[in-house]
Amino acid sequence: MTALAAKMRDTPRWKWLLGGAVVAIPLLLGIGLTKDPSFIPSMIVGHEIPAFELSKLSGEGQVASSVLVGKPFVVNFWASWCVSCREEHPILIALGEQAAHSGSFTMVGINYRDGRSAALSYLDRHGRFPYPSGVDGRGRTGIDFGVYGMPETYFVDAGGIVRARHVGPLTREAIVKNLALIGAQP
Amino acid sequence: MTRLFAMLIASLLLAVAAQAASFRTEAEQETTVRAIAAKLRCPVCQSENILDSQSGTAKEMMTILREQLAQGRSEAEIVEFFRSRYGDYVMLSPPASGYGGLVWAAPLLLLLAGGGAYLLLLRRSTRASGALDAAAPERSPLTEQHLKGLEL
User: Fold this and answer.
1) Are B94 and B103 within 8 A, CB to CB?
2) The domain over range A53-181 is classified in CATH as 3.30.470.20
3) CATH 1.10.8.640 is the classification of domain B1-93
């Protein structure tokens, strides 16, 4: 034991530094590998929701943020061309039914950079949402939200402050966790 | 008649000049558009600016950029518009302030640290060899002879 301590004491400092670097650099690179380089942190979480006023995909009228504020709500960006949107489609329908049933939150969709007829036939094939969708044909509302990957879902509290953003298909765990953040009963 | 002709020529020249001027400002505007667009990263692509990207989002961002320039907004205001939506990510070269500053400062800091370490090592090794010289025993006559032999 004392021999080891003595050996450690006698080791030159540069050897310690070199050894540290040999361990630290691969460690940092390894941590880097676990991160998604295309992930963009949301700028609007913690801020007021960007205002939008979009015409409804089906039926008359508009989907407007000003009407939604006052009660917690969930905004889901979707498109017929988005493959992973199909994965979350049944979950969205269930969540919409849950919203209508519990009444503690509202749900709204935004049809992002899509054609109206393509979007409607997509809904015919996969099932209609039990809530309205607004049409964001040019993607301006998406840019206001900082949307970069589809699908994206935003959880907004009653005061109109965005509390969470979920990129990719929704999961039940994400729903439970994020609904709690906006003060809605799952 | 001559006066009328002269007036006609003059108004024609004026029209051509005005047209040329508007062409020039359009060209200038396009240069500005391209300069700003080259600095903005397309959020749905991998390391591509919005000028080169063919994605719909990038094209819409180009439209917004043109609209805002036409409204008389400055480059800083337009960059801020996109930064408030996509964060520093939207800038192809990270900003020199805040966390982005670290990216710019890191190479300089590493260079200074490396240079400092090198100088330190260099000084230590010269001091060590100097100490060795001082501690070296006086040269034996044999070595003196050898040295003389070499000089010859």
Assistant:
1) yes
2) no
3) yes
